[in-house]
Amino acid sequence: MTTKLKLTFPAQTATKPLSYHLVKDYDLTFNIFQARISPGLAGELAIEVTGSESNIKSGIEFLRSEGINVQHLSGSINHDSQSCVHCGACTAVCPSEALYMDENGRLAFDNELCVLCEYCIKTCPLSVLAIKYTE
Amino acid sequence: MTRTFDEINDKIRSGQVAVFTAEEVVAMAREQGVKKAFEKADVVTCATFGMMCSSGAFLNFGHSDRRIRMTDIRLNNVECSGGLAAVDTYIGGTQGSVDRPMEYGGAHVIEALIRGEKVRLEAKSYGTDCYPRKYAEAYIGLEDLNQAYLYNPRNGYQNYNAATNTSNREIYTYMGTLLPNCGNVTYSSAGELSPLLKDPHLRTIGMGTRIFLGGAQGRVVWEGTQYCRNVVEYEDGGYDFAGATIAVAGDMKQMNARYIRAAVMQKYGITMFVGLGIPMPVLDEDLMHDLSRPNSELYTQFVDYSTGKLAMPKLGRVSYAQLRSGSVELNGRMVRTSPLSSLFMAREIAALLKEWIQNGRFYLQQPVEMFPEKREFRPLNAKGE
Fold it and tell me: How far apart are CA B109 and CA B115, in angstroms?
């Protein structure tokens, strides 16, 4: 199976070879979408992980035991469709084309393509977009 | 055969009027020809729902006891114009609030008032014999104001640039975020639904035209600021119209906040989505020819927004059909296109206006004066950087 995760970790854990352990110990492959690591500050990593269900579960447990906060992408952009005017400004910055205009001129979202960059959230002129993470 | 405004209004009165949206007549003319479309349609509704920076509202607060001549006026911490009579003001839509200029501004105050919310008025003065009070504070809603009318000096742009960025860094503009090296294109027009693009010679739109403005019936009240009339002709024989704008006004007390929405463009500031609809009387076949032009025959130009110069570099023409397809070829590669004005909302307004006319709730107003065919577009000769 494949799942998308957002990892937030305190500065002191950023030095550990986490990816090495995920690959070697849990047989997981992953794709890094986003990495934001600031010196002395918490880091953020958005990844897509592929492997067996039990290995993913164990891998997540390992990450948590290392003090890393692990969140799953919920499955959709939290999009306040009552407030959205379907202008399309968010589609201009979406690198993976997960956000697009459908044939009826409405904003549409393909979760499979989302890479968790969150550019759309800052771009939305009405602030009606949010990515929903669950534990 | 021709039609007049009076004949069309008679038909509205008797419930016999035939109204179509601009998109519907595009399809009708394609299937049945322009002549047939002209015979069938009395009125064509056009609409747009885009961010229009040159927007704001005149408000009158009424007098307090004792009286004040307000010179320094704030609504929810947004500075308003104090240079009018004692308790009149103009609030500009793009004015950022004193404390949160990139998050909250005049457009938010206007939207809040239309939504029925109260806003905080704070006014100062130096005090005079006839206006002795020096400070006033109150929470006010639309119902407390004597007059509250939107007056937007420049709305409904006939046509607008397709924006791109040739520089090697990301730029943040009123046309949205433009990625480096022409990484994307944004555009802001309802295309074949757009009012001034469908009446390119302004044969039906002028001073006094009754319009849909923010959910109410408003008026075209003057030519828009920066109004000019450009017919851009291209080497390959194509052409497009650009430059005309309209000043519009309408009673905020009649408006619906669904059609006036405050907006924030990242690292640019505050602006306002304005819902605008204009019905076109189908006076003759020539006009139907213009009204039925499809997106594939309506053009704009790619413009480079990275220079900040008066003459922004133009990078060739593109049709609205191409822009709406989601990607266009630019400098030899396919580039993603994104709209900024809402087609979804424009369609809703065009359909609503059609319904109003069919139900006899909205009559067409013949302009009391047409706008000039020529108007020079002057630059500012500024000192310093």
Answer: 10
C-beta atoms of B343 and A89 within 8 A: no
- Cβ–Cβ < 8 Å for B185, B330: yes
Which residues of chain A approach chain B closer than 8 Å at the C-beta? 85-89, 91-93, 97, 100-101, 104-106, 119, 122-123, 125-127
Distance CA B276, CA B320 (A): 19
B342 and A87 in contact by Cβ < 8 A?
A: yes
B345 touches chain A (CB under 8 A): yes
**For residues A93 and A80, what is the distance between their CA atoms, to the nearest angstrom?**
19
How would DSSP label each residue in A77-105? EEE-TTT-----GGGGT-TT--EEE-TTS
* Cα radius of gyration rounded to whole Å, chain A: 16
Q: Which residues of A touch B184 (CB under 8 A)?
A: 92-93
The pLDDT tens digits of the residues spanning B267-285 come to 999 999 999 999 999 999 9
Measure the CA–CA gap between A76 and A133, rounded to whole angstroms.
9
Distance CA A91, CA A125 (A): 12
- pLDDT tens, position by position, B303-328: 999 999 999 999 999 999 999 999 99
Residue B130 known to be catalytic: yes
Closest alpha carbon within chain B to A107: B344
pLDDT range class, residue A13, cuts 50, 70, 90: low
Helix (H) or strand (E) run with residue B154 in it: strand B147-155
SS3 B193: helix
Question: What element of type H or E holds B8?
Answer: helix B5-14
Q: Write the DSSP assignment of B331-377 as a string of letters.
A: TTEEEEEEESS-HHHHHHHHHHHHHHHHTTS------SBPPPS----
Among the listed residues B146, B142, B135, B119, the one whose alpha carbon sits nearest the alpha carbon of residue B67: B135
Using DSSP bridges, classify how beta strands B119-124 and B135-140 pair: parallel, antiparallel or unpaired: antiparallel
Q: Do the Cβ atoms of B336 and A93 come within 8 Å? A: no
- d(C-alpha B295, C-alpha B187), whole Å: 13
